[in-house]
């Protein structure tokens, strides 16, 4: 596929997002992550919003190491043979969250198909540790598919995260070529099972990218599938190829188109939608969680 030139407006948007707005807070955030020997998806996945988020004193923790057992063609995280699980990591995340004063903690991971439970118990351990903090923060987990094992899924849900997220990433037609280790139907099943088995009040969340060659009809069908699975919170962002070795960008979607998809998603019944070129799974996660819970409470009182 021929490489598509990045439009100037997007290059400037990325430059601005990468640039620290508050250098002092940015350095403090980076230092806390380093001091507690933690990984962040902000750094490992080369997120363009790192400057903005670190400047706000927030980061998305990535547990279970920095090596993924899958090799998706869109992802910057390295793949290979991971190290053994670090049992002290949940405690270090708790201490970092406390030092950073986080009120909404977002935790994701590499995919660990080498582990019997896919790392589910480790997710649960992180949630349990965060629950011991004074005035415990709300917790959002962005999990892999655990190969579809509901027992692993339930390990995470039993720890009662406020937000349970799993990304479908893209329309199903592209899975075989771009993320061959994943199964679209399996991801939908994870989301549907989470919505069904989670405690009342848990918000189910998913996200996907545009710009990989999908059609409008495919995006509409994807949105319908996610609503049928019970997803309440949705993120839609632009795919940005991490390097020339990764899957090429087919098209750069305009901000106006992202705004149209946001309107369409709200019309379809999603309670919270973040849609824009640099939107990522954890984009302003705490804000959108509060927005959704406010709408749920308002609906319940009607």
UniProtKB/TrEMBL annotation:
GO biological process: protein lipoylation
UniProt cross-references to Gene3D superfamilies, sorted A to Z: Aldolase class I (3.20.20.70)
This protein's record includes keyword Protease: no
Protein's UniProt keywords contain Phosphoprotein: no
Pfam families per record: Radical_SAM
MF annotations from Gene Ontology: 4 iron, 4 sulfur cluster binding; lipoate synthase activity; metal ion binding
EC top class, as a word: transferase
Cofactor note: Binds 2 [4Fe-4S] clusters per subunit. One cluster is coordinated with 3 cysteines and an exchangeable S-adenosyl-L-methionine.
Names of required cofactors: [4Fe-4S] cluster
Main subcellular location of this protein, as a coarse class: cytoplasm
Involved pathway(s): Protein modification; protein lipoylation via endogenous pathway; protein N(6)-(lipoyl)lysine from octanoyl-[acyl-carrier-protein]: step 2/2
Chain sites annotated for binding [4Fe-4S] cluster 2: 68, 72, 75
SUPFAM superfamilies in alphabetical order: Radical SAM enzymes
Enzymatic reactions: [[Fe-S] cluster scaffold protein carrying a second [4Fe-4S](2+) cluster] + N(6)-octanoyl-L-lysyl-[protein] + 2 oxidized [2Fe-2S]-[ferredoxin] + 2 S-adenosyl-L-methionine + 4 H(+) = [[Fe-S] cluster scaffold protein] + N(6)-[(R)-dihydrolipoyl]-L-lysyl-[protein] + 4 Fe(3+) + 2 hydrogen sulfide + 2 5'-deoxyadenosine + 2 L-methionine + 2 reduced [2Fe-2S]-[ferredoxin]
Binding site for [4Fe-4S] cluster 1: 42, 47, 53, 282
GO cellular component: cytoplasm
Places the protein is found: Cytoplasm
NCBIfam families: lipA, PRK05481.1, PRK12928.1
Family: Belongs to the radical SAM superfamily. Lipoyl synthase family.
Protein name: Lipoyl synthase
